[in-house]
Design goal:
alpha+beta; 7 strands; 3-stranded antiparallel sheet
Length: 152
């Protein structure tokens, strides 16, 4: 059975062979990946879409000097990312979201807090899974700081 791309090029058959079409397709994909093809977006359009995004990525968290579980390569098991997202109904209200992925087989129990606060959220995270949580909702507070610890 021949691949779908070859079959569709043979069926269309507009004067060129499927080999030439495949080569031009691959060449076009390489040009698009480099950003010089016909679908390349101008820089000012990219800047405009980036500034109008409702999602604001946050900088790294503070894990402190607490012991954390590590994988076989010595990297922490918990991979943590955070972002604030504007609500659709009111763009001045922001959800402070945290996404955490467990890269190890053993389950983790983590505690996420606003930095310097006792307002915390506990998360039980099974091995090799990802969970998203909302740490809080605040009006007008686009950026936030957080800390996390592993509860043993």
């Amino acid at each position: 059975m021949e691949p779908m791309i070859m079959r569709s090029f043979r069926e269309k058959g507009r004067g060129r062979s499927w080999k030439r079409r495949t080569a031009s397709l691959v060449g076009g994909a390489a040009l698009i990946m480099l950003g010089i093809g016909p679908s390349a977006v101008p820089n000012d359009a990219r800047a405009q879409s980036a500034s109008s995004s409702r999602l604001t990525l946050q900088s790294g968290s503070y894990a402190g000097k607490a012991q954390v579980s590590k994988d076989a390569f010595g990297k922490p098991c918990a991979d943590v990312e955070a972002a604030s997202k504007a609500r659709m109904s009111n763009p001045n209200i922001f959800d402070h979201m945290i996404s955490v992925e467990n890269r190890c087989l053993k389950p983790l129990k983590l505690r996420f807090c606003y930095f310097g606060s006792d307002r915390c959220t506990d998360v039980d995270l099974p091995g090799l899974k990802r969970k998203d949580l909302v740490l809080g909702v605040y009006p007008g507070l686009k950026t936030f700081r957080y800390s996390w610890t592993e509860v043993r």
